[in-house]
Description:
14% strand; alpha+beta; 3 helices; 4-stranded mixed sheet; 93 residues; PspA-associated domain-containing protein; single chain; PspA-assoc_dom
Amino acid sequence: MIVRIMGEGQVMLAESRLAELNKLDEELLAEMENGDGPGFRATLHALLAKVHDLGEPLPDDSLEPSDLILPSPDATLEEVRELLSDDGLIPGP
């Protein structure tokens, strides 16, 4: 699957890796609900780092349809709220 990180580019990530990202996604949701800005920022950075660790970056000139769009590392709580679905940022069980 193709994951777009806003402002950074795209990463090819095996769908089987989504489960590994869901724990961080759940933490991010809880921090957002609690208004925990510092926790939110740390978890967002950890989530994006995990995507980079687990995936392969696509070339900058490649423009594939994205299966999943994640916020940029400097996104605010409000910006991330706009991206959320009922499952959070990462679809999961």
